[in-house]
Amino acid sequence: MLVLTRKLGEVITIGDEIKITVVGIEGSQVKIGIDAPKQVKVHRAEIFERIKQENADAAHVDKEYVSDLTHALQPRHKRLPHDTAK
To answer: Is the pTM of this model over 0.85?
Structure first.
């Protein structure tokens, strides 16, 4: 982990396209502004963890449910009697 000391208004850059600016200091809180391309998702860590958990929950598939659904969707072929009287 890189630890930096910055003053109000100073900027940290990450790569060519991400800039982090100290925009305010109030007591023990530091307010930062993040300028990043639209395709770069920026979240607070607790929100990011919640998103990951929700995605994992959504991706979980109950195997019994899938089996029941597969069985229900299988076509039911009607057996036709063989015509042997030709």
So the answer is: no
